[in-house]
Prior knowledge:
Elements: E1 2-8, E2 15-18, E3 21-25, E4 30-35, E5 40-46, E6 60-62, E7 76-79, E8 94-103, E9 106-117, E10 138-142, E11 147-154, E12 159-166, E13 175-178, E14 183-190, E15 195-201, E16 204-209, E17 218-223, E18 228-234, E19 244-250, E20 253-258, E21 262-267
Parallel strand pairs: 9-13
Antiparallel strand pairs: 1-21, 2-3, 3-4, 4-5, 6-7, 7-8, 8-9, 10-11, 11-12, 12-14, 15-16, 16-17, 17-18, 19-20, 20-21
Amino acid sequence: MKITEKGLVRQGQDGAIFENLLFRFEGNGQCFVYELEDLKPVAEFTLDKAETLVPHCNSVMFGKEYFKEDDEFPLLYANIYNNYAEKENEHCGECCVYRLYREEGIFKTTMVQVIKIGFTDDTLWRSEGVKDVRPWGNFVVDRENSRYYAFVMRDGDKTTRYFALRLPTLADGFEAVLTKEDIIEYFDTPYHNFLQGATCHKGRIYEVEGFHERIRPAIRIIDLEKKEQIFHADFYEAGFIHEPELIDFWGDKCIYGDNKGNIFELEFNN
Length: 270
């Protein structure tokens, strides 16, 4: 894997790319927008309803459906992850969906849906007899195949389980609950050490993980047709020591960012 530095943006969580714009999110729903070519700041905004249901933005990406046919941007997905870890309702497996638009040049959002995994208390999701460290799970949207992939660390068997589910549409209503009946298939991969940003590109999930030297920052690639991990690389060994957060594609260029705001391009041999 070749890593090339591109520049610096705001520190934060995951981000999403649409055309020539990079949207970098913080864990409180705030977003900073940049032009990707030169990482020039464009704007900033806060996600709708962030004061009542705030996503951690551990994983963020654009989908394929548009709220209105003539909207500039497709729907934007951002997961809640661990923002409510100390609450009675942890909001495990939940993701907020937004309409993103510009009004007189100002970016605005409206929360239009909340997607919920309806079986997070089931042993299909959680380890049996063991308290999982990160039971909240992560997600990506497979735009090409209209699938929603949810995945979760399972500390009991030290695997990460991926679920392929149907991708809800706005026709499913504001609260779209995905049940076990919505599972198309599921499979286990090697254990991921603390889920960070993730994206789906051409039938593969690119997921970054880890924190620091003890829980090493790394990247994994999961082939969805083969249902297996096909690549793993350690950022720390290459001298990139900060917590990994952001990953998405700009065309066929893989863009990666750490928690300090450093932005890189990743190139893979396969």
